[in-house]
């Protein structure tokens, strides 16, 4: 075992969090630097991480978000049988969860077991993984000897059949993991060894009669501190604290001053760091509720002072022992949401709301619960009615010295509550303390895990199977040749990718068994570089080109959705493999591998969306070939007939029938009648319209006609079309936009003004052909609608001026295109 010193413990914790994939429970007595460690990890880790906490105030203090908002969990009990309820996550939220490396949960002692299992269910679902927590590494920070989770009796009645305890360590998902426990032991808050020993005795429930008597010497029944002494009362019940503060404030004869918070956007009441309506008087005892972020660091969260003066410049506070008073003005707290930066593709925090108020609260008294994490020079402890495990320890450990502590009532032995479950867990924590050898093995296991992940083609095989199932289940709606092409792709994936990677993965344990880490094994690195060359070429030259031939149109909207959803997922998997094997050609290291994988996932755009519109894909020979002029002519005829008869295009002619005509080029009514879905009667009815189209677009002119088709236009071969063959000119603009062209580029290509192109796109938005989010960023839409509401402003010029040029005229037109 490692000899515990503060530096070794912190270094050990850093190594596990930064260089392994091991879940970590970081614990320690009050004042041992757990929160400091959290902030250090955020600053130095290369992993994609988020920070969550069980309460709003804890989330604000940790610089993160609440667990329930991040994972969209219900606030009541999460019973395992109904844990998979349908929760709708935004596309951006799903991207964030899928690319997450590290989840940090602060104040874990207050997190219920079912909540942790709820997190597990969400991560497994959206990361397509059956590993605990979807394979995300956990850093759980907290002290189980402090405040427990709040579980009402009626909630526990629902949870008890499923959990041994309500504490986080009873989570079924966590019990599936081999997490390590690291306990920080060096105490920064207290320096007096006598006081430290007493606190340890209370924390570990080992304090004897002599120790309790020593502690109770601080019971001073007649103690009345001077008004400027800076004592704060810590009580077990909120009502008691409120009554003390209200009475003390009322006793002051100085004028009352009321300060109203300014609350902008999203900042729920349960997250307020202080009172929204703050009543103060000169002479009031106050506590700072925020750290001073300036260079001077004049105050900190929990510092006590007395109001000396109030005017238009702010509130003047004098703190005991400070040579000068402080003039305090309003400060901001931020409510944040995790998003993915569109430029860097990194996880970033967006400010979604602010709370602006004086960083003060009345502080003659505060509840023990709200004092967690704070440090006081002087405190009066009223813990005789302690009702929850950890309350007495939290209260006592807030004080820096025993002399600065006064007991309002003696501490009875009965208030130092013991829970057998926690005693057993604490013993388990000691057993899970890792050694240096374990750390080395964990680093090696992490590197081996990522190399295995690199060579795993099972996800691609699964997604291909899903794609084949869509084709099998909808054979009547999709071209028959798809079955053949899918089979060919499956054979290629099996023979050239899975079989080769499987042979390497069988040899990997030999390399991992060596003393050196895989990253430092030059023989293995050479194998990996060669593998990078082979698999990158296979993906670039064979697998992805074959996959991109599998484009298929259908009149059945649901089939079309299912088909392209499955196709896009498979393409994304192969594109990510292409990226990581490309990086591997110069050598493998875990950090670069992770960064490359995440960037490829976030940058992915389906090939069909970045090249040409799907309607321009030819279905004549099944999938992916160059479109024929007959195919376009038939599409145009079908659209015109549908419009004329007020019918759907499918009612005029199914897509499969149209494709077969484009394949077979029937030259007579008899040949037309043989097309599936036509028959003799229908051939006689539509033949006079179809056969002339066939004769005007013979097979030998296919390539020539294609040069003036939409694909020819997208390639830049046609300078301008006033009216394209398939409908209105705005639709042609839409196709170019969907192909990745900017409005300015479209205007140049088509010989139109930029304003005309913008008008086309607005028309497409109004017709429901283009989502407004495709042309106006979400933050600008929010700004527009929050400023002007759902109704279009009377003057766009005035609107642009009012928004200080933050949006353009075009963006305003797009935003209100739907009326």
From TrEMBL:
Q: Where is the HRDC domain?
A: 624-704
Q: What is this protein called?
A: AAA family ATPase
Q: Which Gene3D superfamilies match?
A: 2.30.30.940, HRDC domain (1.10.150.80), P-loop containing nucleotide triphosphate hydrolases (3.40.50.300)
Q: Look up the record and give one Gene Ontology term from the biological process aspect.
A: DNA repair
Superkingdom of origin: Bacteria
Q: Which CDD domains match?
A: SF1_C_RecD
- What molecular function terms (GO) are annotated for this protein? DNA helicase activity; nucleic acid binding; nucleotide binding
Q: Which Pfam families match?
A: HRDC, HTH_40, PIF1
């Amino acid at each position: 075992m490692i000899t515990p010193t503060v530096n070794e413990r912190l270094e050990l914790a850093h190594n596990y969090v930064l260089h392994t994939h091991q879940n970590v429970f970081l614990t320690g007595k009050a004042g041992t630097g757990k929160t400091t460690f959290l902030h250090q990890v955020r600053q130095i880790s290369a992993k994609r991480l988020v920070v969550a906490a069980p309460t709003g105030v804890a989330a604000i203090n940790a610089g993160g978000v609440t667990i329930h908002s991040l994972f969209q969990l219900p606030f009541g009990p999460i019973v395992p049988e109904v844990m998979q309820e349908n929760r709708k996550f935004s596309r951006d939220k799903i991207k964030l969860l899928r690319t997450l490396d590290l989840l940090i949960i602060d104040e874990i002692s207050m997190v219920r077991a079912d909540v942790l299992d709820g997190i597990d269910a969400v991560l497994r679902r959206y990361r397509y993984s059956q590993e605990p927590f979807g394979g995300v590494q956990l850093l759980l920070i907290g002290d189980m000897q402090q405040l427990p989770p709040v579980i009402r009796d009626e909630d526990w009645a629902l949870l008890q059949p499923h959990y041994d305890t309500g504490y986080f360590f009873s989570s079924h998902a966590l019990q599936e993991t081999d997490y390590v426990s690291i306990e920080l032991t060096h105490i920064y808050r207290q320096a007096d060894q006598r006081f430290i020993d007493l606190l340890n005795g209370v924390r570990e429930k080992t304090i004897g009669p002599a120790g309790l008597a020593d502690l109770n010497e601080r019971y001073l029944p007649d103690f009345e501190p001077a008004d400027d002494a800076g004592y704060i009362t810590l009580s077990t019940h909120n009502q008691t604290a409120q009554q003390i503060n209200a009475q003390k404030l009322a006793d002051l004869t100085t004028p009352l001053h009321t300060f109203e918070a300014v609350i902008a956007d999203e900042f729920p009441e349960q997250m307020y760091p202080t009172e929204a309506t703050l009543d103060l008087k000169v002479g009031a005892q106050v506590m700072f509720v925020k750290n001073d972020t300036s260079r001077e660091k004049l105050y900190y969260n929990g510092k006590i002072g007395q109001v000396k003066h109030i005017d238009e410049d702010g509130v003047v506070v004098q703190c005991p022992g400070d040579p000068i008073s402080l003039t305090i003005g309003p400060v901001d707290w931020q409510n944040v949401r995790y998003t993915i930066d569109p430029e860097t593709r990194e996880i970033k925090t967006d400010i979604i709301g602010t709370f602006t108020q004086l960083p003060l609260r009345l502080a003659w008294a505060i509840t023990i619960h709200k004092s967690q994490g704070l440090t006081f020079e002087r405190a009066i402890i009223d813990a005789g009615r302690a009702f929850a495990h950890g309350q007495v320890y939290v209260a006592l450990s807030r004080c820096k010295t025993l002399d600065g502590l006064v007991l309002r009532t003696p501490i009875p032995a009965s208030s130092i509550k013991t829970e057998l479950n926690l005693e057993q867990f604490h013993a388990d924590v000691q057993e899970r303390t890792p050694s240096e050898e374990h750390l080395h093995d964990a680093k090696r296991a992490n590197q081996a895990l990522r190399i295995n992940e690199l060579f795993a083609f099972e996800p691609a095989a699964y997604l291909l199977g899903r794609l084949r199932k869509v084709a099998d289940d909808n054979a009547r709606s999709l071209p028959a040749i798809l079955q053949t092409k899918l089979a060919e792709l499956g054979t290629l994936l099996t023979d050239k990718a899975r079989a080769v990677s499987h042979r390497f993965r069988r040899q990997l344990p030999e390399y991992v068994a060596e003393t050196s880490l895989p990253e430092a094994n030059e023989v293995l690195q050479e194998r990996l570089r060669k593998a990078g060359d082979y698999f990158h070429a296979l993906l670039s030259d064979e697998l992805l080109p074959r996959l991109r031939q599998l484009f298929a149109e259908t009149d059945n909207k649901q089939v079309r959705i299912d088909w392209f959803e499955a196709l896009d997922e498979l393409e994304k998997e192969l594109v990510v493999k292409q990226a990581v094997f490309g990086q591997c050609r110069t050598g493998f290291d875990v950090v670069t591998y992770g960064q490359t994988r995440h960037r490829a996932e976030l940058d992915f755009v389906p090939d069909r969306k970045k090249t040409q519109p799907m309607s321009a894909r030819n279905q004549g020979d099944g999938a992916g070939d160059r479109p024929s002029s007959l195919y376009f002519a038939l599409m145009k005829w079908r659209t015109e007939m549908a419009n004329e008869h007020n019918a759907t295009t499918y009612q005029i002619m199914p897509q499969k029938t149209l494709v077969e005509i484009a394949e077979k080029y029937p030259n007579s009514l008899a040949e037309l009648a043989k097309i599936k879905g036509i028959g003799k009667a229908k051939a006689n009815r539509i033949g006079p319209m179809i056969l002339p189209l066939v004769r005007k677009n013979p097979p030998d002119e296919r390539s020539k006609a294609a040069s003036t088709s939409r694909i020819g236009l997208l390639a830049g071969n046609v300078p301008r079309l006033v009216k394209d063959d398939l409908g209105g000119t705005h639709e042609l603009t839409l196709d170019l936009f969907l192909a990745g062209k900017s409005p300015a580029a479209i205007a140049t290509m088509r010989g139109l003004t930029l304003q005309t192109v913008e008008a086309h796109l607005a028309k497409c938005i109004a017709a429901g052909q283009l989502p407004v989010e495709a042309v106006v960023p979400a933050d600008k839409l929010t700004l527009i609608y929050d400023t002007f509401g759902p109704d279009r402003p009377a003057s766009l010029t005035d609107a642009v001026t009012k928004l200080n040029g933050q949006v353009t005229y075009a963006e305003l037109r797009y935003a209100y295109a739907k009326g």
